[in-house]
Amino acid sequence: MTVRNLSSVSDSLIADELAEVQKFLSEQLNCPDDRLAAFIDYLKHRQGKMLRASVLLLSGRLFGDINKIHIEIAAVVEMIHAATLLHDDVIDDGRSRRGHATANNLWGANLAVLLGDYLLSKAFLTMESLQRNDISRILTDTAATICQGEMLQNALRGDSAIGVEEYLEIIEKKTAVFFANCGRLGAIISEADENDCEALYDFGLNLGMAFQITDDLIDIVGKESETGKTGGRDVENKILTLPAIKSIDFAKSQIVHYRQKAVSSLAGFDPNPAALALKELADSVTQLPL
Question: Which of 118, 168, 239, 282, CA to CA, is 20 to 30 A from 147?
């Protein structure tokens, strides 16, 4: 999102690695059939802020240098995320994202779903090539959990009785677990010990909760010119989010709560540049428009 500037984090520490991720990602998306060039080009130029990749890379950097597996799994993470956005835009009939027309808007729901499926196929092919069953298992389980969260959200669509507990369950599954496993994977690839892997899982989980509540609040109070995507979609689609269930002020208090929990998860790490960048990341992704 344009309202949450991540450049100060990525430029200071992982800009080169993010560029490698983007390069590898573009290479994986290549297709020899020129008739599909417009669709592939669309995918290559809609990579966003690479927030989940940043969590993975910074978590890895906590323990030393970032290696080839970090780069390739960061690309896989971004492919999975991009696929979920394509499918989300079909479900919610989103017309714009990141300041551009969605695939759903340009070519219709059928093509948008297929583009999402293509990304998922490429993601799992890349995972298979690494022959790391531990990583594949985590990401496959993550993808299933995201689907469970989305299914639960759609099952409860329009239910005025939905409460805070159900809302938090939905966003944990559809958003926060993905962030959590990005943190854990960065540590696993760096061969960190189990306690450190769990600490970074907790960081990502709480970061993801804060991020999603922020995103839901911005859907209500943000301007499309600032956020880069169609506003008011949750209300229009009868999806009750925390600001609607309780209040805007309560949602803001929960953003602070989860952001603080995320930062507290890093207390056991030395205050090196990577730890500082993760804390800065937690602040930057929970900024609200003025």
Answer: 282
